Structures are given as C-alpha cells and as structure tokens.
Amino acid sequence: MSFFISDALAQSDTAMQGDSLLGLLFPIGLVVILYFLMIRPQVKRQKEHKKMVEALAKGDEVATMGGIVGRIVELGDNFAKLEVAEGVEVKIRRQSVESVLPKGSIKEL
Fold first, then answer.
1. What pTM does this model have?
2. Which residues are registered as beta bridge partners of 91?
3. What is the CA 60 to chain-centroid distance, rounded?
4. DSSP 3
5. Which helix (H) or strand (E) holds 89?
6. 3-class SS of residue 80
7. What number of CA atoms fall less than 13 Å from residue 61's CA on the CB side?
C-alpha cells in the first residue's frame, strides 16, 4: 500500500558517472550560448562607444543620450560644452554623447 511513496531504484556507479557528465553538458552549453549572444556583443558596443568618445573634436555635431543635438564648442577630459542654439551652451558629460552626426545636420533641423 505505497500509493504516495515511490520505490527507490538502485543505480550502478558507472551509470551515475555518465549521467553527471551529461548533466553538466547542458549548463555549460547555456553559458557558452549566453556569452556569444549577450555578453560579447555588449562588450563590442562598449569598445566602439569608448573609441568614438575619445575621438570627439571641437566642431563635431553630436546627439546625446538625452536627445540634445548640438555642436561641440569646448572639450575637457570628462565634460564638453555643446552649443544647442546661437548663444546657448550646455555642459554635458563626454560619455553621454550617443552619436556623431554628419556635418550640416543641425542646419537641417
């Protein structure tokens, strides 16, 4: 009368070793897939962004992560001044620059 208790089945030692290796294969495969689909592309984007921020120069037209578009008037180590309108300057962090726009893009806006 063991309706709720299942019978314990004995396993040999060789079967246990083969199952443990197969049991580790799935988590290792998930980590490898996670690395190639998520971690590696993110690191690549970070390197490209850092390279772009280091290459900023006075006169570049940029768009920030907050949506501000302007021309770089002054550059420092960590900060930059953007001219968003004639006579209006905004101080931003260099890291907040999202992209460098082609020359003349501000005139089109």
1. 0.71
2. 81
3. 24
4. S
5. strand 88-93
6. strand
7. 11
Sequence-ordered list of residues with C-beta below 8 angstroms from that of 63, at least 6 positions apart, any chain:
69, 97, 98, 99, 101
CATH for 57-108? Answer: 2.30.30.60
Which candidate, 67, 104, 68, 102, places its Cα nearest to that of 83? 68
CA 56, CA 64: separation in Å to the nearest integer?
A: 13
The residues, any chain, with a CB within 8 Å of residue 75's CB and separated by 6 or more, are 56, 57, 58, 81, 94
**pLDDT, tens only, 9-63:** 655 555 555 677 788 888 999 999 999 999 999 999 999 999 999 999 999 999 9
Give the H/E segment covering residue 33: helix 13-34
